[in-house]
Write a structure and sequence with these properties.
With 307 residues, the protein is mainly alpha-helical. Helix content is 73%, strand content 0%. The mean pLDDT is 81. It is found in: Membrane.
Length: 307
């Protein structure tokens, strides 16, 4: 059954988006602070295992069937593909945070709307870029290149000599997030309840990530400090359950190009929380890159003026 879609962003959407972006910015700092105690991919596995239980309970409470029997043809395959991309995205995020700062990785991760703007028109011709949107695409490219160059050659390279590797992993994570969005919007998965879309993503991640963690030789230890357990619960229940469920719901009810502009508030929050909580360096190159990429995404998502 198609979801009722609104044509504008109302006060409810703005409030939810601001809350989500603030937590997502803080979440990167939280993950990085926890990596010292809990191996990165193993940390992601525990997070999504907890989230899977929460999402499954929500689906059962709301009467959303977990079986794929009642779904449109092809939705289950699309759901598994979205889940695999989601798992790959977070593997890149958690691994990347070992090499670069939370604020830097977030800049690359939240270039995802830029990838959506580039890829989606290949499947939905109505989303083709026009006019000022191409200028925005160029600005985003320059911003990403500037941030990457800062990691290779700039002052941040002194404290984080492998920042470029974390940057590339962040960029790959953003691309996988964009591909997940494309799958959700262009396949029969779009006609599935938002909670079930999220369940596919967290459940597949729960199945895939422990295999990757094992393959990387990460230590599996369950005796965490109170801080680590608090971090994992916040990542799972607030991040992977509440905020992602809200995001899935908004994708189903609001214009995706308009809500995507808001996610570029996340790097701003990550920059702030990273500087305050972890003492991460804030370079002029990184701030300039952030401004360019954010401006680029705003222009890419700008509604063309009618002739």
């Amino acid at each position: 059954m198609p979801h009722a879609r609104k044509t504008h962003i109302d006060s409810l959407a703005i409030s939810v988006l601001l809350a989500c972006c603030m937590f997502w910015g803080f979440q990167q700092v939280l993950v990085k602070a926890t990596v010292a105690e809990v191996a990165p991919v193993f940390q992601a596995f525990v997070r999504f295992a907890l989230a899977s239980v929460a999402v499954a309970a929500w689906c059962l409470w709301r009467g959303v069937p977990l079986s794929g029997a009642a779904e449109p043809r092809g939705a289950q395959r699309a759901g598994l593909l979205a889940g695999a991309l989601f798992a790959g995205e977070f593997a890149c995020i958690y691994l990347g945070l070992q090499y670069t700062s939370a604020s830097r990785l977030t800049v690359f991760l939240y270039a995802s709307p830029f990838w959506v703007a580039l890829l989606l028109p290949r499947f939905v011709p109505a989303e083709r870029l026009q006019g000022w949107q191409w200028l925005g695409l160029g600005a985003a490219f320059i911003g990403v290149g500037l941030a990457l160059g800062d990691g290779l050659l700039g002052p941040a390279n002194t404290a984080l000599p492998q920042a470029w590797l974390g940057d590339l992993l962040g960029l790959a994570a953003g691309l996988m997030w964009a591909l997940t969005t494309v799958v959700i919007r262009t396949t029969p998965l779009a006609r599935v309840a938002p909670a079930k879309q999220l369940f596919y993503q967290v459940a597949v991640s729960t199945a895939v990530l422990p295999l990757l963690s094992w393959g990387l030789g990460e230590p599996w230890a369950w005796r965490f400090s109170a801080f680590a357990w608090g971090s994992l619960l916040a990542q799972a229940l607030v991040g992977a359950f509440m905020s992602y469920l809200a995001w899935m719901w908004m994708l189903a009810h609001y214009p995706a190009t308009k809500i995507s502009v808001f996610v570029f508030l996340t790097p701003v929050f990550a920059l702030l929380f990273g500087a305050l909580g972890l003492g991460e360096p804030v370079t002029a190159g990184l701030v300039t890159a952030l401004v360019l990429v954010a401006a680029g995404i705003v222009l890419v998502n700008r509604k063309p003026v009618a002739a």
